[in-house]
């Protein structure tokens, strides 16, 4: 069983950047694909980005393409979400998830972190 811990959230002005980290407890981190999801108040959880086990394949939601970048360092058991050109509508609780493939559907992931809050002021 893998435990995930997100960090790096915070308050940033519109146009700014943040880098989120997702640290895994599992030594066999490279057995898992990783995804990032977000949930804003009053809205459903939404897919943001995902990356396969070796980092060669990535997927992005249309709303973040060209602004966000997902990556991973398997030697550090950590995945990252670099967020640039942030907008107020990016404000949400961001979660990382681990699963067998880089799906875009949250119900296909078996492991989740607790989330880290990202707030973008206008």
Question: Would you mind describing this structure in some detail?
Answer:
By secondary structure, the protein is mostly beta strands. Helices cover 0% and strands 48% of the residues. It has no helices and eleven strands. The protein has strands at residues 4-7, 10-13, 18-24, 33-39, 46-51, 58-60, 68-73, 78-83, 92-99, 111-112, 116-121. Strands 2, 4, 5, 6, 9, 10 and 11 form a seven-stranded mixed sheet that branches. A four-stranded antiparallel sheet has the order 1-3-8-7, with no helix packed on it. A hairpin with a 4-residue loop joins strand 7 and strand 8 (78-83). The radius of gyration is 13 Å and the shape is globular. The chain starts with a strand and ends with a strand.
Short synopsis of the structure:
The chain is mainly β.
Task: Summarize the helices and strands and which ones pair or pack.
Blueprint: E1 4-7, E2 10-13, E3 18-24, E4 33-39, E5 46-51, E6 58-60, E7 68-73, E8 78-83, E9 92-99, E10 111-112, E11 116-121
Parallel strand pairs: 2-11
Antiparallel strand pairs: 1-3, 3-8, 4-5, 4-9, 5-6, 7-8, 9-10, 9-11
């Amino acid at each position: 069983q893998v435990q995930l811990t997100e960090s790096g959230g915070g308050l940033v002005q519109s146009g700014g950047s943040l880098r989120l980290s997702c640290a895994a407890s599992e030594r066999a981190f490279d057995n898992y694909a990783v995804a990032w999801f977000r949930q804003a108040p009053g809205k459903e959880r939404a897919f943001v980005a995902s990356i396969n086990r070796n980092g060669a394949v990535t997927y992005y939601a249309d709303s973040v393409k060209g602004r966000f970048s997902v990556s991973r360092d398997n030697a550090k058991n950590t995945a990252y979400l670099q967020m640039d050109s942030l907008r107020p509508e990016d404000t949400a609780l961001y979660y990382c998830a681990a699963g067998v493939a880089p799906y875009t559907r949250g119900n296909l992931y078996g492991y989740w972190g607790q989330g880290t809050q990202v707030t973008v002021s206008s």
